[in-house]
């Protein structure tokens, strides 16, 4: 029998529960263990949990997971769960870093409709079940969430164009949610991501009222044959025009 929870609540519960699995794996891993082995254990453990839980809760739905084979049947399915079992494997393996996440999103009949981003080491779940409110603007410089380990070559030019300051952090989900929790004002990415990297953050951010798009301002489209979705913008709505203009000037 199909789980009676709404899709919104199911997404939130699954992201939180997969996060608990990851915390257990991380906590039990030997202190002197190889980081690569911890990454693999986390990816696999969370993936297996989510696949089993979705098969039980929504047996008729397709699933697209970063850690699973791409079942092309999803392209003709009405409902597809798009999941990243562990976003930010590097940060997960660098204990006690907390800037890693679990993404769970639902695509239905052409659009994302529900989702959740768990940040397990912080005990936080952002979801469409209980949408966040956009924090008040600080009124200061635009704060850009950026990769702490792989900043792109175009970043200094964007910082100059926006007169911005940088807020380095880990996973894509954490960066997107930093705009929602008020620790950043914008997240701009161009240079390679996949649908599972952004699906859950985008539906959670958009439901809360943040601006989301590709870097050219076009909509983010999911459950495509090619799952590469290399760029996105998540920002406060009042900054959208300014950020889009700056990005356009850079030719990203």
From TrEMBL:
Keyword Metal-binding tagged: yes
Superkingdom of origin: Bacteria
Record's keyword terms, sorted: Magnesium, Metal-binding
Keyword Cell membrane on entry: no
Signal peptide, first to last residue: none
Pfam families assigned to the protein according to its UniProt record, in alphabetical order: Inositol_P
CDD domains: CysQ
Reactions the enzyme catalyzes: adenosine 3',5'-bisphosphate + H2O = AMP + phosphate
Entries under PANTHER family matching the protein: 3'(2'),5'-BISPHOSPHATE NUCLEOTIDASE 1
Name by which UniProt lists this protein: 3'(2'),5-bisphosphonucleoside 3'(2')-phosphohydrolase
Organism in which the protein naturally occurs: Nostocoides veronense
